[in-house]
């Protein structure tokens, strides 16, 4: 898997910063995951909201989302002043709920009718991880991934 990470500031001052991590399958070069982090509180940019979109790998491998999101969190906490990453996860999205728990997210609350979907507005659990709590769940060779 080839992972590219990009940290870019917005054009507005004091605008939010955006962090993007793209992942492509080595064999066919298709994008299989996309991570977006957004700083919502302006400078000093301590609080960030995150989202991840994960596709299916042609080889059927599992755990791509966890690996990519962990790498993105590692870059976020090591390259920015971020102290907290948070985000809502639909209560019926069991794979994302499990991934968040594996990555050390703590549940902070419940958001009723929070995520609009084609099938209707979904309830969500609000989870977060603090920089002081963050521990990469696997050995990372940054040269290989970034």
From TrEMBL:
Residues 15-106 form the N-acetyltransferase domain. GO terms for molecular function: acyltransferase activity, transferring groups other than amino-acyl groups. It comes from the Bacteria. This is N-acetyltransferase domain-containing protein. It comes from Rubrobacter xylanophilus.
